[in-house]
Structures are given as structure tokens and as C-alpha cells.
Specification:
94% of the residues lie in helices and 0% in strands. The longest helix has 69 residues. It is built from 4 helices and no strands. With 171 residues, it is an all-alpha fold.
Amino acid sequence: MLRFVLLMIAVAGFAVSAAALISAQSASNDADRIASEAAALAARIQAAEADIKAARTRIAIVTRLQQRQRARLAEKQGPMIRLTAALQMMTRKPTALALVEPRSLDELIYMRSILSAVMPEIERRTASLRDEVKQGEQLKLQAARAIASLDESQRRLTERRRQLAGLEASE
């Protein structure tokens, strides 16, 4: 839906700009030509302002998506961190100690069997976290593109306003 709205804004801006350019080219006398060019520049300024608004909207959307993703990652990381900490605590006993204490050998075997049962789940959950991180990287790229688009639109707007001021000064 957002893409459609942005596309419609862009199409409307370009259509207005194109129509204004055509009327500027067909004007016969200088006053009409200058007025038509001023109208064309005003239409371009409006299109650039629409581009800026669309870019700011994209940036806001990407920012909200990033915030949601951070919350999801924090939610998923909590259990994984606790599980990892528990596994580290359980495996801290050195293997040599297991040879000295027969009970420790049983614990070691038990821990290894638990680890072999838990490892597929850990791998599945870490794969999900890796996917979330990749999505985060894609969101960063989208944000960078939106910011670059905003910067370009602002540059065009400034240039067109300068051109319009020059045109109005020449009248």
C-alpha cells in the first residue's frame, strides 16, 4: 500500500512537472514563457517537496520496523543467553576431575547426553536470530537509501527554489 501511495505521489509530481514544461515550451512571447517557466519550476518544487515528504515517511516506517526488530531480538536473546550461561556453568568442571571422582564421570556423561539433545534446538534458535540480524541489515540499507533519497530531494528543492528566485528576479 505504501509503495502504491509513494508511486502515485511520484507520478502526480512528474505529470504536473511535464505538463508545466510543455506549456512553457509552447509559450510565444517572453512574458508568457517566463510565467510558464515559473509555473513549471513551482510544479517541480511541489514535486520535490512531495519527494521529501515521501522520503521522511519511508524513514519513519523503517525506524519503526527497526524498533520492532530490536524488541523481537531482545525477546529471543534472553532465553538463549540464560541457556548458554547454564550450559557454561554445567560444563565448567574439568574432564580430568571426572576421572578422579566416579560421580563426576556420571555427571559428565549425563551433561553430554543433555547437550546432544539440546544442540539441535540451540542451532534452530540461533538460525532464527541470524535471520533477524540479516533482516536488521536490510532495514539499515533501506534506511540509508531513504536518507539518500531525502538528501537528493532536498538538494533538488534548493536548486529549483534558486532557479525560481532567479526567474522571478528577471521579470
